[in-house]
Amino acid sequence: MKIRSLPIFVICLIAAGLASIASTAGVLLRTRPDAYTMTVAGIVLFMLASAAGLLAGTVLRGNCRSVARRLANQIAGGSIERVPLKDAEMRPLTTAINDLVDYTNLKISDSRLRFKELEIQLKVAHAERQHAEAIIKSISDAVLVTDRFDELVLANESAARALQFKTTQPRRTPVDKVVSDEKVIELIREMRQSGSTNGRRIVEHKTKVGGVDRTYKITLSCVADDSQGGENREPAGVVCVLHDMTREKEIAQMKNDFVSHVSHELRTPLASIRAYVEMLVDGEAHDEKTRGEFYEIIQSEANRLGRLIDNILSISRIESGLVKVNKKPVSLSVILKEAIEVIAPQAKTKNITIEERVPPAFYQTNADKDMLYQAVLNLMSNSVKYTPEGGNLTIESVVDELSNNVVTRITDNGVGIPAKDLPFVFDKFYRVEANSKMAKGTGLGLSLVKHIIENVHQGKVFVNSEVGKGSTFGFELTLV
Question: Which of helix, strand or coil describes residue 465?
Fold first, then answer.
């Protein structure tokens, strides 16, 4: 190479190098292939531009600028053309450059293909993430997902309600900045620090949500990092699922209480029947009068046992939806009068006066006559039992045509119910302790009334009472 051509060569080399860098940046902006491929392509492009500058500086001063400009434009366009063979003396160098051009074009093509693959993989991963998020958000249980730094990655609406935070919290927020329940935060940290990616941990946790006691079954499991091979993979995060067990606990407790109450109520009449039967067998009833008294007691306890079983079965059928309901327009006044006729002898034995305030019979409601009659009779019988001798019983039914309903009230001047017991009088087996000695009962009569009125007839029951002044039980039904 001649000395006089050296400055031109240097200029061409610098110009071609800058053009190569600019074109490489352009390809990066358009294709964004992986770092390894871009590094190789950048080096090759710079070598190609440098060789082009060397060729231009060696051959002709005038051709230098045009060759460099043409190569720079082609590189920026993402495809390079072979250099034409115009000078036999430069054939070896030109051939080498053309080989380099072919290699560079191949690398650019591979980079484009690789980018397309990465673009497809990114779209698939994004779609899978959206699908996973949709599944988690549709789960009724509360779900929290944290990363290896205990930052909240994903949470559904159930988790926001259970742990009292907003789902609008930005992602990658530390979980202790979002969740206020210290126990949940501690469990997530312990699970992540355990380093175990196999198995799960189940914990029962009691807390308050909106001032109400709630019980949750918390299931925690670690998410394995798939980028790490082998069995000693570190957890990439924790999935925390909170299942609300409050209702299940209540139902389990109700079942236990139900079995306990039924056992107690069954044991009492059975014990009486067994005792008097044994006395009869042992011959302790020496005369006909004594035997007659024993027989009456046995019959009374057997009837009590039968009523208890009937009430239990009736409530069970109503709750399970197996009861057959035959609804049709019936007159509530007729049902009330029939129940009064049945309860009158029982009231007469205690010298209780019954006052009727019943509207004409042409007002009707859509009801099952037998079940509604049973509910009315239970309320009347309950009032007679807890009203002392010489008391009063008022049965009235008021029709409100504007609201299209009828309200029935059964009022007595009996012992009354303490205020603390009023919210529970319609519960199964509940009996007011202060009045338990005044009359026998199973605690199922009022519960059956509530099931018949509210569950079967979609009405409403109510009670008002004051100790020493009496009680008013009633219900409201819709007219037809």
Answer: strand
Does one domain contain both 239 and 281?
no
238: alpha, beta or left? (left if phi > 0; alpha if psi -120 to 50): beta
The structural domain count of the chain equals 4
Q: Which CA distances in Å does 256 have to 56, 319, 431?
A: 98, 17, 17
Domain residue limits at 24: 3-117
Contact indicator for 354, 395 with CB cutoff of 8 Å:
yes
pTM here is 0.52
Does residue 13 belong to any structural domain of this protein? yes
In this prediction, residue 216 carries a pLDDT of 93
Distance in angstroms (rounded) separating the CA atoms of residues 314 and 307: 10
CA 9 → CA 5, 57, 93, 313, 364, distances in Å?
6, 4, 15, 106, 112
Q: Report pLDDT digits (tens) over 286-308.
A: 888 888 888 988 988 888 788 77
Contact 206, 215 (CB under 8 A): yes
Q: Name residue 287's amino acid.
A: D
Identify whether the C-beta of residue 45 lies closer than 8 Å to the C-beta of residue 24.
yes
The CA distance from 258 to 265, in Å, is 10
Burial (0-12, 13-18, 19+ Cβ within 10 Å), 337 = middle
CA distance 470 to 386: 9
